[in-house]
Amino acid sequence: MSAGEAEDAQRERFLREHLDAVTRNVGEMQAKGDAAGVAWRTPSDLAGMNPADFCRLPGQPVSGRPATVEELPATLADL
After folding, report:
1. Which of 16, 23, 76, 78 could serve as a FRET partner for 44 with CA atoms 20 to 30 Å apart?
2. Residue 12: pLDDT band by 50, 70, 90 thresholds?
3. How many domains does the chain have?
4. DSSP string across the chain
């Protein structure tokens, strides 16, 4: 495996782990809503976020540029 392939594999593992963590968090928020007997709401509702505060086109970077792998953990933690 070349250095570039190893870096790509590491990046993919990193992204997959963080995506799994986000997915678990969304599931937990949905479960909390279900347990409380409330109608299903969007994850932004459950998180107390106003969707109008973060409206943008799908795939549009928040900062005007794509995030780096190093910035991903902090970005996910901010969610």
Report:
1. 16
2. very high
3. 1
4. --HHHHHHHHHHHHHHHHHHHHHHHHHHHHHHHHHTTPPP--HHHHTT--GGGG---TT--SSSSPPPTTTHHHHHHH-
Torsion of CA 12, 56, 65, 19, to 10 degrees: -20
Q: Which two tokens stand for residue 43?
A: 């994850």
- In terms of Cα–Cα distance, which of 29, 44, 32 is closest to 79? 44
Taking only Cα atoms into account, the Rg of the chain, rounded to an integer number of angstroms, comes to 16
Whether the model pTM is above 0.70: no
- Residue of 66, 75, 57, 60 whose CA lies nearest to 19: 75
CA distance 9 to 60: 25
Domain boundaries, position 50: 3-78
